[in-house]
Please model this.
Amino acid sequence: DTGVSQDPRHKITKRGQNVTFRCDPISEHNRLYWYRQTLGQGPEFLTYFQNEAQLEKSRLLSDRFSAERPKGSFSTLEIQRTEQGDSAMYLCASSLPGGMNEQYFGPGTRLTVT
Amino acid sequence: KQEVTQIPAALSVPEGENLVLNCSFTDSAIYNLQWFRQDPGKGLTSLLLIQSSQREQTSGRLNASLDKSSGRSTLYIAASQPGDSATYLCAVDMRFGAGTRLTVKP
Model:
């Protein structure tokens, strides 16, 4: 499978715990994006990378959220001290460089904070 | 800040009807507009990408148009089928609307 992959697909955690999600983009795609989606809403932009550089970060991404893409390939999204409001689907997408290229999405990681 | 709005929020039609979904945006300085389909509990599937210099794109029964000056895009679905039932999302660069939930009844 050469599409965008995400791991894990589901995560249940207790409030206050830290969680980390991984995204593997399509191999030739330099850009990688993270979004968060809650029920009945469209995805909300969180951040994006070109290669290893984090080029934009939403104000939605509080200090408890951090994303990395250390070698310009896979990326991780970490949430520290999770809260119930963090429960959502976390989506990753990738594209070729430049603002005019199609984004391809992974299946998402569903986070439930109890 | 770019705001993206989709109308209607939900739409139910009988099989075979042609239909139009609407997307509006507030900032005309865009790179591209992309239409997606999302089935319940699943990720997003790309349907059509319109780059800022283009006016429309077509794929099979789908046709999407873009009018940057008025901040509008439409997705036209011809001869709808029950398998078209899903949520349709419009994305302007990295900003999404809330989607239109489409139900096509047999």
About this structure: The interface with chain A takes residues 4, 6, 31-32, 34, 36, 41-46, 49, 51-52, 89, 91, 93-99 of chain B (CB under 8 Å).
